[in-house]
Amino acid sequence: MHDLRVLREHLEQLRDGMRRRGMFEVLEPAIDRGHALDGERRNLIAAADERKARRKRERPGSSEAEARRRKRRRADRAGRGLGDEITQLEHELARVEESLRGVLLEIPNITLAQVRRGARRTTSSFASGARRERPTV
Is there a contact between 118 and 22 (Cβ–Cβ < 8 Å)? Predict the structure, then answer.
């Protein structure tokens, strides 16, 4: 499974690796969907964090007893509304993260640049700095 940063920071290398495997046309929709899901995931996290910060800011401070009670009631109502929004955002985030995990599992490893396009007979790997060829399964 790929690290999420591959979709975010190394998208072109991922695309090039899939071209070398001869699988880009098949996997292009999955790669694009994964990239879009990552953006949606980041937006949901930012929205939930913003709501949590707002809920924290809106908690009543210290003041006269009656004013405190009124503020507390208003803050409780607002807090419940924000809590509902946060819960909804977190459920949506869980759904997006599960979809993104499925996409990352679908995309095979990136081949090294030295591998010929479409080559499937051997794979190149690096172990302790020494290159070795091994048959693919």
Answer: yes
The type of residue at 47 is A
27, 31, 36, 42: CA torsion to nearest 10: 150
- Residue-by-residue DSSP string for 45-80: HHHHHHHHHHHHHTS--S--HHHHHHHHHHHHHHHH
Q: What are the structural domains, with CATH classification, of the chain?
A: 4-135 (1.10.287)
Cα distance between residue 22 and residue 1, in whole Å:
19
Distances (CA, A) of 105 to 3, 60, 67, 101, 123: 10, 46, 55, 6, 20
CB 102 within 8 A of CB 12: no
The predicted-structure confidence for 7-23, as pLDDT tens digits, reads as follows: 889 999 999 989 988 88
Model confidence pTM above 0.85: no
> Hey, which residues does 123 pair with through a beta bridge?
134
Mean pLDDT, the chain, integer: 77
Contact by Cβ (8 Å): 38, 7 = yes
